[in-house]
Design brief:
alpha+beta; 3 domains; three-stranded antiparallel beta sheet; 13 strands; DUF5787
Length: 341
């Protein structure tokens, strides 16, 4: 395996999916490269209510964005005029009507017209399936300057408290994590060392549980000198709750194996290699784990699968590229109990 950040990120996701152990009976879902417009986390772990997760599956694999969630979460059990059923969204009602039609098209709610008014009714309650969000920042090579560069981001995460826990994951080395590095990082952030070769991890510093149910602070501007004031704004708990659920919905839909969507599994050199730690993309031409940035159509070694691989003579339907995508999709679905095949 190469030592790229991408390879490390996949190793962290594999480990988290296999070994993350919540303190309760929670089911675990892992996703990568998620967050808000302002902040993207490398890896996120969702701790989910097991029954709620099964109920969530009844709404299908696709995610619901926050406008749709507004409709789903308030859809009544009995036919009701939509404006009586849903709280004022804080934006024009015509957008709510669009979301109602979108939700109905996905069979997530039912609609009917009475006296020229749209009435809605839920098909089933939208479940309370998300318990906790764990955000992990991956820094395989945690040097003193990398740790210092991370500090402003981590302080923003802690002040906003959108995730329940914030961690830094770094690669295991022969050295222990220097106490000076720990001293540089905010005490509320956890530190984890991950060994990609053995697929194991060790907690070096326990994080603090953040106050996700209280208003947060968004740090807008943080001057370097000590004399200027930082600029910040408050975010309320409703906003945080809504954002958390929207993040969880997208994570539910995408997981962390979506790299096959942007890489080139249709290249004849693209393979999946498996060892006891998990399954990784492998480039036979370069004999390495290619990064998502290099494994593209512009890659000088890219060669499309020969057409005969996709023909009836090939034992896998659609050729190996399609088969790889199907395999990754099946593995993603396995983590989401209750989804129909
Ligand atoms: S040759 Fe290039 S495009 Fe093909 S698998 Fe390797 S990195 Fe990806």
């Amino acid at each position: 395996m190469t030592s790229s950040e991408f390879a490390f990120e996949l190793a962290v996701c594999q480990w988290a999916e296999r070994a993350w152990s919540p303190s309760d009976d929670a089911a675990v879902l892992v996703a990568r490269q998620f967050g808000t417009k302002h902040r993207r986390w490398d890896t996120i772990v969702l701790e989910c209510d097991p029954v709620g997760l099964q109920e969530r599956a009844k709404f299908g694999t696709e995610s619901f964005h926050s406008d749709l969630l507004h409709v789903l979460r308030h859809a009544p059990a009995d036919w009701t005029y939509y404006r009586d059923a849903l709280p004022d969204p804080g934006y024009p009602w015509r957008y709510v009507r669009e979301s109602i039609h979108e939700a109905a098209d996905r069979d997530a709610i039912e609609t009917r017209k009475r006296s020229n008014r749209i009435e809605i009714r839920r098909v089933r309650p939208y479940p309370d399936w998300l318990r906790r969000i764990i955000a992990i920042e991956n820094k395989p090579d945690l040097t003193a300057s990398a740790a210092r560069n991370l500090v402003p981001q981590l302080e923003r995460d802690i002040a906003l408290s959108l995730a329940d826990e914030v961690w830094v994951a770094t690669a295991t080395t022969d050295e222990r994590v220097e106490p000076i590095l720990l001293a540089d990082l905010p005490a509320a952030a956890g530190v984890l060392t991950v060994d990609p070769e053995s697929g194991t991890a060790e907690t070096v510093w326990q994080p603090r549980s953040l106050s996700v149910d209280e208003p947060g602070t968004r740090i807008l501007d943080r001057p370097d000198d000590d004399t200027s004031a930082a600029r910040f704004e408050y975010v309320d708990t409703d906003w945080k709750h809504e954002r958390r659920l929207a993040i969880a919905e997208r994570a539910y839909a995408r997981g962390w194996r979506a790299y096959a969507d942007t890489m080139r599994p249709d290249c004849r050199h693209f393979q999946l290699s498996a060892d006891e730690t998990g399954v990784y993309p492998h480039c036979a031409a370069k004999d390495c784990l290619p990064t998502a940035a290099e494994c593209r159509g512009q890659c000088p070694s890219y060669e499309p699968e020969p057409p005969t691989w996709r023909s009836m003579d090939w034992p896998l339907d659609g050729g190996p590229g399609k088969a790889i995508k199907r395999l990754l999709t099946r593995r993603r679905r396995r983590q989401r109990p209750g989804l129909s095949e």
